[in-house]
Specification:
The chain is 84% helix and 0% strand.
Length: 106
Amino acid sequence: MMKENEKEVMTLISSAGDSRSKAFEALKAVRSHDYDKARKLIDESEKADVEAHNMQTKMITEAIRGEDNNEVSLLMVHAQDHYMCAELVRDVVQELIEIFNERDNN
């Protein structure tokens, strides 16, 4: 049976994965010059990122309060890495949307 902490870690991984996937979908929309679709997808990516961020904040708060007695696991390290990469991808794609949109519409 999965512990509560493991469920939280899996939620973090899942939300970060959704964010990353939406960001890459947005980048594909940029390739076809569909900037409205790209912005819609990057907004969806950001919503998933907020879910991941909220879970991360909850877990950090629990650790600070001493409510989390679990040791750092490989799964937790993976979740943090996954989340960080998803944030970076979203930020870069968001900037690329604007760069290519400006180029194509000037």
